[in-house]
Design goal:
Blueprint (H helix, E strand, L loop, with lengths): L4 E5 L3 H12 L3 E7 L12 E3 H11 L6 E5 L6 H13 L7 E2 L4 E2 L4 E2 L4 E2 L4 E2 L4 E2 L4 E2 L4 E2 L4 E2 L4 E2 L4 E2 L4 E2 L4 E2 L4 E2 L4 E2 L4 E2 L4 E2 L7 E4 L4 E5 L5
Parallel strand pairs: 1-2, 1-4, 2-3, 5-8, 6-9, 7-10, 8-11, 9-12, 10-13, 11-14, 12-15, 13-16, 14-17, 15-18, 16-19, 17-20, 18-21, 20-22
Antiparallel strand pairs: 22-23
Length: about 220
């Protein structure tokens, strides 16, 4: 992380998770935004609502170079995280990745911007992770895996070596993907599933072994 002042988009549990990491690294949360009129999840941090409040806040900022931003949006909403990442870039905000101090990330891994690596996560040798992705607590992404933009590897999920995951896909908590499996874009793998064969785009699959249950609406 570089700039010490952060803004978050998203005012639910993920905001608390990111705030804990940012505070531990000496940063501060200056403002939170959310599309819904809910209370701020952080004491003494003001919340704004929607793009109009965000645009108004920008007019008050004297030095945009002092601020970083990240979308505190978890779950299967990878497309939303990526859209906010693009918004932040367009407004001149820094978009660093965030690492919990207990996470391990190989020096040979290649991470995009605004990636979230949470507590006790493992990112192995020559892994590639796209912008606005989440590697959640206790998740393991082993050697040479390639993850697209807006992906989410949920808590305690395991990707064995040489797995490919397409854009905006989510692997549920405790799921396992065997080596050299290809998972398409806009896919949800259910919690606890074991993926033993390739999964195409735009589906939901779960079970042991994982089976396609239904199609998933194509993201915008």
């Amino acid at each position: 992380m570089n700039r010490k002042k952060y803004i978050l988009w998203g005012a639910t549990g993920q905001a608390k998770v990111l705030a804990d990491i940012i505070h531990s690294a000496g940063g501060i949360i200056s403002k939170i935004f959310d599309n819904n009129r809910i209370a701020s999840p952080l004491n003494n941090v003001e919340i704004g609502y929607g793009i109009s409040d965000f645009e108004s806040w920008l007019t008050t900022v004297k030095d945009i170079n002092a601020y970083s931003a990240i979308a505190a949006i978890g779950g299967e909403r990878g497309f939303d995280r990526f859209e906010f990442y693009q918004l932040f870039c367009n407004k001149g905000l820094a978009v660093p990745s965030i690492f919990h101090q207990t996470a391990f990330v190989s020096q040979s891994a290649k991470l995009g911007e605004n990636v979230q690596i949470l507590a006790n996560a493992f990112v192995g040798v020559e892994v590639v992770i796209g912008h606005a992705s989440i590697i959640n607590s206790n998740a393991s992404v082993d050697h040479e895996c390639i993850l697209g933009i807006g992906t989410h590897i949920a808590p305690a999920a395991t990707l064995c070596g040489c797995v490919t995951v397409g854009d905006f896909s989510m692997l549920g908590a405790g799921s396992t993907v065997l080596p050299r499996i290809n998972i398409g874009s806009n896919v949800i793998i259910g919690a606890g599933s074991v993926v033993t064969k390739d999964i195409p785009n735009n589906v939901i699959a779960y079970g042991n072994p994982a089976k396609i249950i239904r199609r998933r609406e194509i993201v915008r």
